[in-house]
Amino acid sequence: MPEKQVTQHRQSAWIDFDKGRSIGTKGSEEGKIIRDEEHPFGARVTLEGKGHIAPFSITLGIYGLMFHTEFFSTLDEGQRCFELYKEKTEVILALFEIDETERDANWRAKQNQLMDEIMAIQ
């Protein structure tokens, strides 16, 4: 399946975490959760407002792989990056559909490149 089709297919799979019950509750950065979405193949993105460190923060987790928090001064920045995190996470999740026996040096290089790209989102 081409990467673009995989991305479009997977992006439609994002759902509200815990059926939306986390919205309005305190997040990991001590702020109020504004958006909280999970991908059934193993990722979660959470946007908080009014945390201790910055006006807005996003926490991204790709289960078993990485956990990252980024801080923002405006809601617009946070919303924009929330979508970018979801898009890049789609590509990373698609990469893990490749059977472990076929994951060679090129696969690892692609994974490292994608991890660098997701960490550079601001």
N/C terminus separation: 29 Å
- The succession of helices and strands, N to C, reads HEEEEEHH
Estimate the mean pLDDT confidence.
Answer: 92
Strand arrangement, major sheet: 1-2-3-4-5
The radius of gyration is: 15 Å
Strand content is 25-35%
Helix content class: 25-40%
Low-confidence residue ranges: 1-9
Find the count of extended strands (DSSP E, 2+ residues): 5
Tell me the number of helical segments per DSSP (H or I, 4 or more residues long). Answer: 3
Give the structural class: alpha+beta
Q: How many domains, as an integer?
A: 1
- Rough shape? globular
Query: How does the major sheet shape up?
Result: 5 strands, antiparallel
List the helices and strands and how they pair.
Elements lengths: L2 H9 L3 E2 L15 E8 L3 E7 L6 E7 L3 E7 L2 H21 L9 H15 L3
Antiparallel strand pairs: 1-2, 2-3, 3-4, 4-5
Helix pairs in contact: 1-2, 2-3
How do you describe this structure in short?
The chain has helices at about 5-10, 75-95, 105-120; strands spanning about 15, 30-40, 45-50, 55-60, 65-70.
Question: What features would you describe in this structure?
Answer:
With 122 residues, the chain is α+β, with helices and mostly antiparallel strands. It has one domain (3-119). Helix content is 37%, strand content 25%. It has three helices and five strands. The chain has helices spanning 3-11, 75-95, 105-119; strands spanning 15-16, 32-39, 43-49, 56-62, 66-72. Strands 1-2-3-4-5 form a five-stranded antiparallel sheet, with helices on one face. A hairpin with a 3-residue loop joins strand 2 and strand 3. Helix 1 packs across helix 2 (75-95) and helix 2 (75-95) runs antiparallel to helix 3 (105-119). It is globular. Mean pLDDT is 92; it is low at 1-9.
